[in-house]
Design brief:
Layout: H1 5-17, H2 20-26, H3 31-45, E1 50-53, E2 56-59, H4 61-87, E3 93-99, H5 105-117, E4 120-126, H6 129-137, E5 144-147, E6 155-157, E7 161-170, E8 191-193, H7 200-212, E9 220-222, H8 228-231, E10 237-241, E11 257-260, E12 268-276, H9 282-299, E13 302-303
Parallel strand pairs: 3-4, 8-9
Antiparallel strand pairs: 1-2, 5-12, 6-12, 7-10, 7-11, 7-12, 7-13
Length: 309
């Protein structure tokens, strides 16, 4: 079986955590396919890399021998790709950039135009934070736009960008005439939000912040995008930045929905533009700056030097 750099990345993650579940979370994948990839690597090498017993994982002698070399191989691979891109003819340079699913068309068009101006062959991928994180670590993506929190190990991240969340609701919602809304006042309302699998850390943080503010929704409905039909029924609400109500963002007439700020602005989204630590060629760096500018200009993200812990 031919060796695959991704299997070495997976091996390093398990070897550093000594826990398949934790390594899977770091790689933003589920445990069964990770275990399968490690088993394939062991079969290909003809040795056991881990002893698995009593729910404990330890490196075998072969695993200890492989680990430093696997780290070096992954880092060398990334440096080689970066070096080749830096010295290749400009017309043949390629770069793959990932974006969140709610990124506006204006941002995607701007980045496509910027890459063309850089004489690079750009590929745009729309994917969840979890999928982008996995693809970055697996070498399938050069740059990603990830929602915090995420595991930064092995990644370089830009300074964070911030959006303040408010409440989107139908004009007939009982709270729609208020100037500002307290989180606790949303208690009777169904919460419409993204599925947890999209960005597990962000999902958990958002619900924890809601609970801390007195909003413990009895019912939660999941949707990948803001759906006006769900918001206009059952007095449902969703938590989004004000830019979400721009006509380009919704599939219904804007007058049907309203956005209201929350008292004391307790909820925020944070995002960063991310690359692998070992990928720092000029094209990647220029593309990162282009992505940051586009997110600020078109999707109203604001630069912030530090994300509060």
């Amino acid at each position: 079986m031919p060796m695959d750099i991704r299997r070495l990345r997976y091996f390093v993650a398990v070897a550093e955590t000594l826990h398949f579940g934790e390594a899977a979370r770091r790689l933003n994948m589920t445990q069964p396919p990770l275990s399968k990839r490690i088993a394939e690597l062991e079969k290909g090498l003809g040795v056991l890399l881990f002893d698995r017993h009593n729910r404990k994982v330890v490196l075998t002698a072969a695993g200890h021998t492989l680990l430093p070399q696997a780290r070096e191989a992954v880092e060398s691979f990334d440096r080689a790709i970066s070096s080749v891109r830096a010295h290749s003819p400009s017309h043949s340079r390629r770069i793959c950039v990932g974006f969140a699913l709610d990124t506006s068309r204006q941002v995607l068009r701007r980045i496509t135009a910027d890459l063309k101006a850089l004489r690079a062959e750009g590929q745009i991928r729309e994917a969840t934070t979890a999928d982008q994180h996995r693809m970055l670590l697996g070498g399938e993506l050069d740059i990603g736009v990830l929602r915090h929190p995420f595991d930064p190990k092995g990644l370089w991240t830009s300074e964070p960008l911030c959006q303040t969340l408010g409440v989107v609701m139908g004009r007939n919602h009982p709270l729609a005439r208020r100037r500002v809304i307290d989180l606790a006042d949303l208690q009777p309302s169904t919460l419409l939000t993204f599925p947890r699998v999209v960005a597990p850390g962000l999902y958990d943080e958002l619900l924890a912040a809601c609970r801390a503010g007195g909003y413990r929704p009895a019912r939660i409905e999941h949707a990948m995008r803001m759906t006006a039909g769900l918001l206009l029924s059952n007095a449902a609400v969703t938590l989004r930045p004000a830019v979400a109500l721009k006509p380009r963002r919704v599939g219904t007439k804007a007058p049907d929905l309203v956005w209201k700020p929350l008292v004391d602005e307790p909820l925020h989204w944070w995002t960063s533009v991310v690359r692998r630590e070992t990928t720092c060629d000029p094209l990647t760096q220029k593309t990162i700056q282009a992505v940051l500018r586009a997110l600020e200009k078109y999707d109203q993200w604001k630069r912030h030097p530090v994300r509060p812990s």
